[in-house]
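> run fold Aromatic acid/H+ symport family MFS transporter
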Amino acid sequence: MSRTTAPVRSSLWVVILCFLTLVADGYDLIVYGATIPHLMEEPGWNLSPATAGMIGSWTLVGLMVGLVVAGPLTDRIGRRKLLMTGVLWFSIGSIVCALATSPTFLGAARFLTGIGMGGVVPSAVALSVEYAPKNRRQLYNALTLTGYSVGGVVCALLAIELLHQHGWRMLYALGAFYALILPVMYVFLPESVDFLVSRDRIDEARKLAARYALDLDQILQDKNAQRSPHDIAHAASGYRLVLSREFRTTILLLAVMAFCVQLIIYGLNAWLPQLMRAAGYPLGSSLQFLLVMQLGAVVGMLSGAWMADRLGSRHVMLPFLLIGGLSLIALSQKLDSAWLMLAVFGAGLGSIGTSSLIYGHIAAHFPTACRGSALGGAQAIGRFGSILGPMIGGWIVGSNLGLHWNFYAFAIPAIIAATIVPLIPQSR
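> ok
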């Protein structure tokens, strides 16, 4: 064991800082759905539902580009730099969005902001898992990923309080203040020990391992095992290792699941307030539904992680997806307010809660040499679903299919994802 000194800091420090970066990610992705009703009433813009859905999708195209680039990049230059760059990029992008003078301007600004934020999730998840005790990896992953929903909760609360009086530009401008956490990250956020070892920076790795009570000897053994000449697959790294025979089936199945879940998440995040307004609820109540969905997501992430650490993530993803699908079907019906809120809560639990389990399963299943690439690659494919989600929502809102199809369109992917879960190979 390489724990030569008592640890100075708890690994929860890493979780807190990674959590804060995902709060920015969650705020950025929820703010568009919260502001769509006002954007569609912006004088001179003549924003149609189809165009509004397209702008939401361009944000996610940027995220996908960022994920594709950031996955292997985080395995090359380290997690810490990408996290800090993502936060700075988001802050600048928020100011640019607040200054938008046309739908085209806003769409371009959202696309560029998405590129920067795309690098945050793979780096944050990889760092959280690498610093977590082995029996708490899913929990630490979930604690980090709740930042996404907390950011959504913050955005929904600010929208309820500020949107009517101060307009949509205020919500985007407030995102710029997130740059204030960068000095804290610079001082306290550590680099990945696994990354330092992979770059033969052993002295730096030894200091961090001692500070955070990590088993450096085990990390070095894992590194040597990956370099063993008898296992060609493990001698590879990045996307080459992800697509090797050992991991190919797992990553493809998880990517399809991510596609389905991301379609639900981003379709609902973009259109839930507008869908509920179409069902007869005032804007304030519609924003409350967005808030309840994010609260359901937080509960889903934390409870799902607790169960996944004990039962395995495969045994938790299936019931969560079924809860999400049934909740969405229930939303298509006329319900009393209590049942309606419960259905919205279940939709958040089953969609965003399942997404965190997919991230956690990938981070725990794949070795250090390709963990960032596996996270980035699977989520990049999943982003195609997130791109389609707002577009599908915009098309349905602008059509005459009926209120129930607003929710059937998102329930179907949940059922498809649930059928995939039993096909995922057991973890290594």
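The first helix runs from residue 12 to 39.
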